[in-house]
Amino acid sequence: MDRLDNTIRPYAWGSTTAIPRLLGTEPTGEPQAEMWMGAHPGAPSRTDRGALDEVIDADPEKELGIDSVAKFGPRLPFLLKLLAAGAPLSLQVHPDLTQAKEGYADEERRGVPRNAPHRNYKDANHKPELICALTEFDGLCGFRDPLAAAALLDGLGVDSLKPYVDLLHAHPEEAALREVLTAVLTADPEAMARTVRDAAAACDRLGGAYAPYADIAHHYPGDPGVIAAMLLNHVRLQPGEALFLGAGVPHAYLNGLGVEIMANSDNVLRCGLTPKHVDVPELLRIVRFEATDPGVLRPEAGPDGEEVYETPIDEFRLSRYVLPEGGATHDLTLTNPQILLCTAGTVRAGEHQLTPGRSVFVPAGEETEVSGTGTLFRATVVA
């Protein structure tokens, strides 16, 4: 197996302290938002054999296994991350596989440069994802029931929000959510900025259920995404709890440290809370306008101490081992590729000793035994 040297991405919303605290390193003062583990060409992990994407390219069947290559092609189909949000991420949604293929083909046909800021589809893949909290973790996930969203907006006492409240009361669920989100994102920018300012002041005054939106408005003053965010469920995860985010579900991470795994894609359509491009017509085509329960996931006990976060996705499978002091050695050998990440304690994986934030890539079929005291996350595929 290969010890991984991973890139940390300095996105502006990142915490300056969470990842250094986990790694036991000194903060630099700069945001450290995501640590990428995998073979994504944007920031492949490095090994003693070279960059992980190049190692896999040299012999995909040896590194990934025959079954994984047959099902997903000669690429590692997932990307594992440590994600540390110190400020809200953009409100966003991801396409399903058919939409991604169609959108990518269309932009290729029209000659939209892949690095263009207005390009929506960087690849032809979908991007389902799972976030598992390592600390208390706040996020937004899926639409509220329209009547609940109406009550939240109405409680602010802001006159310019009354038309949205009326729409949420007057239509069936899908039409209500679609019309209100459309109206918010296409409103006159100056008028919307005033509405957001008034709503933010009310959120500050009221606190309680409004506190998360006051914080969002503090980071993104005047952004229509502040009002759009109030249409969504607010979720607070405790350590070990997770959220699965499928296609078409609007979401945003607000604060906290977690382990994130996703299909190996970079397709994002933004709804707000960002200076980046917002393609409203394409966004409205992708979003699923239905109220949903966020569906907090807790790991399900499997054999040999493995705790599995069950999802309907084959490109990735995330599980963890909580290894007690003096516990048994566990055989983790698989015919599929794996990345093992330690998040607490000290874990021995083969010849490698892993401390928090350290990880290894395990090629398909390689004999893998782990022992020690701590918490180990296992990322693999279902092939």
TrEMBL record:
<comment type="similarity">
    <text>Belongs to the mannose-6-phosphate isomerase type 1 family.</text>
</comment>
<keyword id="KW-0479">Metal-binding</keyword>
<dbReference type="GO" id="GO:0009298">
    <property type="term" value="P:GDP-mannose biosynthetic process"/>
</dbReference>
<dbReference type="GO" id="GO:0004476">
    <property type="term" value="F:mannose-6-phosphate isomerase activity"/>
</dbReference>
<dbReference type="GO" id="GO:0005829">
    <property type="term" value="C:cytosol"/>
</dbReference>
<feature type="binding site">
    <location>
        <position position="251"/>
    </location>
    <ligand>
        <name>Zn(2+)</name>
    </ligand>
</feature>
<feature type="binding site">
    <location>
        <position position="94"/>
    </location>
    <ligand>
        <name>Zn(2+)</name>
    </ligand>
</feature>
<dbReference type="InterPro" id="IPR014710">
    <property type="entry name" value="RmlC-like_jellyroll"/>
</dbReference>
<dbReference type="GO" id="GO:0005975">
    <property type="term" value="P:carbohydrate metabolic process"/>
</dbReference>
<dbReference type="InterPro" id="IPR018050">
    <property type="entry name" value="Pmannose_isomerase-type1_CS"/>
</dbReference>
<comment type="function">
    <text>Involved in the conversion of glucose to GDP-L-fucose, which can be converted to L-fucose, a capsular polysaccharide.</text>
</comment>
<feature type="binding site">
    <location>
        <position position="129"/>
    </location>
    <ligand>
        <name>Zn(2+)</name>
    </ligand>
</feature>
<dbReference type="Pfam" id="PF20511">
    <property type="entry name" value="PMI_typeI_cat"/>
</dbReference>
<dbReference type="InterPro" id="IPR046457">
    <property type="entry name" value="PMI_typeI_cat"/>
</dbReference>
<keyword id="KW-0862">Zinc</keyword>
<protein>
    <recommendedName>
        <fullName>Mannose-6-phosphate isomerase</fullName>
        <ecNumber>5.3.1.8</ecNumber>
    </recommendedName>
</protein>
<dbReference type="InterPro" id="IPR016305">
    <property type="entry name" value="Mannose-6-P_Isomerase"/>
</dbReference>
<feature type="domain" description="Phosphomannose isomerase type I catalytic">
    <location>
        <begin position="3"/>
        <end position="144"/>
    </location>
</feature>
<dbReference type="InterPro" id="IPR011051">
    <property type="entry name" value="RmlC_Cupin_sf"/>
</dbReference>
<feature type="binding site">
    <location>
        <position position="92"/>
    </location>
    <ligand>
        <name>Zn(2+)</name>
    </ligand>
</feature>
<keyword id="KW-0413">Isomerase</keyword>
<dbReference type="GO" id="GO:0008270">
    <property type="term" value="F:zinc ion binding"/>
</dbReference>
<dbReference type="InterPro" id="IPR001250">
    <property type="entry name" value="Man6P_Isoase-1"/>
</dbReference>
<keyword id="KW-0963">Cytoplasm</keyword>
<feature type="active site">
    <location>
        <position position="270"/>
    </location>
</feature>
